[in-house]
Amino acid sequence: MLSLYALAALLPAVLAQSTYYGCYTEIPTRALTGGSHPDFVNMTVDACELACTGFSLFGLEYGGECYCSDSLEVGSFPTFETDCNMACVGDNTKICGGSNRISLYGNETTPPVHTPYSHPDVTAFQSEGCWTEVSGPRALSGATGFSLSDMTVENCGNYCLNSGFTWFGLEYTAECFCGNGLDANSTLAAPEDCFMACSGNPDQTCGGPNRLSVYQWV
């Protein structure tokens, strides 16, 4: 009898109907809880889709893990695309998630509904200026993100809000920091200290060396 992975190799036309939604955060209880099919020898995107037949969503993680479900669990949300950086063990031309990051696919053209962590009811963000980074604990000590290719003010802001934080700051072109307020030791800096272009949008500024371009959701 053919394995699921052998069958997947025979059915590329059928398996080409799925939509790639992007890189999503994993959570302690799993973002997709309908089933799991790990294989650290043969895993491919097609093999995972076939293994998840009957489910509307499937995702790959850590190169060889496959998960299925019909919905995302609370706390999983879109993150920086470069967080998914591990090749599939069965096809090194494709990405199969990353460490605590899942490459998410599904059978609908639009991404699934995701539920962010609890946060105040806010609708937009505003600039709070350029601030100093602090030694020891960060000026913003909540969640962190990093991307050498797709860091923008909007991407950092959405990442932090989904993580449950209303303050966010961008530093050194590619770094994103979240919190619910700045550390008391962080001080307002000269605007020109924040001069480095964002890795995902050269028209935006993402801080500088030990300097944060700070924003707040309101």
UniProtKB/TrEMBL annotation:
Residues 1-16 form the signal peptide. It comes from the Eukaryota. InterPro entries: Sialate-O-sulfotransferase (IPR051589), WSC_carb-bd (IPR002889). PROSITE patterns: WSC. Keywords: Repeat, Signal. Residues 17-108, 124-218 form the WSC domain. The keyword Cytoplasm does not apply. This is WSC domain-containing protein. It comes from Podospora australis.
